[in-house]
Amino acid sequence: MIVAAGAACLPAHAAFAADAPECKAVRLSDLGWTDIALTNTTAEIILGALGYEPSQTLLALNITFDSMRNGDIDVFLGNWRPVQDLDYKPYFDDGSVIPVATNLTGAKYTLAVPKYVFDGGLKSFDDLQKFADKLDHKIYGIEPGTNKPLLDMVEAKAHGLEGDWEVVESSEAAMLTQVQRAAEAKEWIVFLGWQPHPMNVNMEIAYLADGDAEFGPDFGGATVRTLVRKGYPELCPNVTAFFSNLVFDIDYENTGMNMIMTDGLEAKDAAIKMMQAHPEKLDAWLKDVVTLDGKPGLAAVKAELGIQ
């Protein structure tokens, strides 16, 4: 691009003012997870204040990757590593998706149980078969396309699994309802758990050991990355700069998610409250980012949010 070639001669913010007209619509994938509801909506509010027209589309994880490969989705804020990097390796290998930021560190993602189940002896993936009858041979997962490590584990009869084990696929909300119902009755249940999430604050849970083959070491210790579709950084450098800056932390996400899940706030209201409480985040998120028409981005967003 001619603009890019001359970027070195321009002020930093001007270099990002060259988004193509089609960049005005920014299409984000929503998996129905509360963490992505918070992060997507945060991005949506900021992009709207910058003059863009962002939208979220509810998609399964596998459809998200297909949609990015097909050019139907621009941005995905939920690339949990390492598990997705393994399951969706071909999309990274052929350049269909491009990582632009690690938006969260210190996450975890593996099987979990209520504390009373852990205290009863189910402490490891290798203990599952021992308590198969108490668990009704069921492992509770979330949306289809997200549970592949568990489905593969059951099919391979890993960890000594025997009999007709079932991975129950539903949604984050449905799974948590099932867990809460079981916990109230002190019934045994094993489910897919992760951090950040209010489940770590509002329930007594413990994570199972020895799931390294399925979810990686350190109890599925994970980072979360932001992906954009192939060609997007060149076409939309200003939006890409914003998403490269958009980095959260565990406390921020736990607090914002708790507003949604426990306090009953809409994602938009929670996202606005969090940004108003942490204006310093905006300074970092909007560094060298401008509005769609080339004006200073930080000032526009703070004005929209009523932040001095």
Automatic annotation (TrEMBL):
Give the signal peptide range.
1-17
Query: The ABC-type glycine betaine transport system substrate-binding domain covers which part of the protein?
Result: 25-274
Q: Print the keywords alphabetically.
A: Signal
Q: At the top level of its lineage, which domain of life is listed?
A: Bacteria
- Cross-referenced InterPro entries: ABC_choline_sub-bd, ABC_Gly_betaine_transp_sub-bd
User: In its keyword annotation, does this UniProt entry include Signal?
Assistant: yes
Carries keyword Iron? no
> What name appears for this protein in its UniProt entry?
Choline ABC transporter substrate-binding protein
The species this protein was found in: Shinella lacus
